Model the fold of this input.
Amino acid sequence: MPSPTDHLPPPPPPPSLDRERDAELTALTEQALRRQRRQLAEAIDMAFDHIPRPLRGAVHRALGV
Amino acid sequence: MSRTSESRAETTKLSRLLGVEDPQELSFLLPVPAPELRDYREAVTDLLYDDDRELLKRTADAARLLPVRTLAAIGERALGPLVCARLTGLLDPRRAAEISEHFTVDFLARLAAELDPRRAVEVVSAITTDTVVSVSAAMAANGEHIAMGRFVAYLDEAALSLCIEALCDEDLLRVAFVMEGEERFTSVFEMIGAERAERMLAAANVNGLLEEAEHVTGRLQAAS
Done:
C-alpha cells in the first residue's frame, strides 16, 4: 500500500489571494487529492478480479501488496 | 482581452481539475491575476500526478506481466479513466498506444479528459487520426472543452484540421476560450478561416458565450 511519504502536500496558494480564502482553496485541493487516493486504492483492489488467476501471484508480488 | 476574462478562463480550468462542478464556487479567485492562477493549476496538476507515484509506478511495472487485451479490459472495467490517465505516462508509449486501440471511444474520451498531455506526448502522437477525431467529438459531447484545449498543442496539423471540421462553432469557441499557447492559437484560427471565425464569434451572443467571444477576439487582436 502507499507509504505516507508517497502522499504529497498541496502547493502554496496564489500570493495575491486573500488570506481568508487561502484555506478554502487548499481545502478544495485536499479534497481532490483524497478523492484521487481513494479511487486509486479502490481501482487496484477491483483490478485483481479481472486478472487471470495464474498471473495474480506475480502481479501481487510486482505491486508489493 | 480583459484581465478578468483571463482569470475566468483560468478559474474554469482549475475548477475542472479540482472536480468542482460549479465554477462559480471558485468565483473568489477572479480578482487573482491569471498567471498566478496558472502557476497554481500547474502545481496542482503536478501534485495529482506525483502523489502516490511509487504505487502508480509499481502498477505500471505489474502491467508488463499482462497481455494488452487484458490490460484494456482491466482499464475500462476496473481502473477507470482517472487511474488510467495517471498510468499512461508511466507505461511504454508503444504499449500504451496498443492498449488504447482496445478501448471504446467513450472510455478514451473520459480518459483523455483526465490526462495531462504533457506527460504522454509520445502516446498522444501514436494515436491514429481517425481515433483522435472520434475522441474529440465524444469529448465535445461530454462538455470536456477545457481538456480539449490542453490537447490542441499536441496534435499534428492533419488531425487538428479534421477535428476543427468535425466540431460545431459553439464547441470550437468553447475550446478556443481555454486553449493554451499563443502560437497554436493563431494557427488554429488560420485553419478555421476568417469566414467561419466571424460566424462563430457573431453567434456567440445567441449561445450565451459573449465573454468567451470577447476573450477570443482580444487574443486574436493581440496576436495580429
In short: The interface with chain A takes residues 17-20, 26, 28-29, 31-33, 36-37, 39-40, 43-44, 47-48, 50-56, 58-59, 61-62, 65-66, 70, 73-74, 77-80, 82-83, 86 of chain B (CB under 8 Å). The mean pLDDT of chain B is 93.
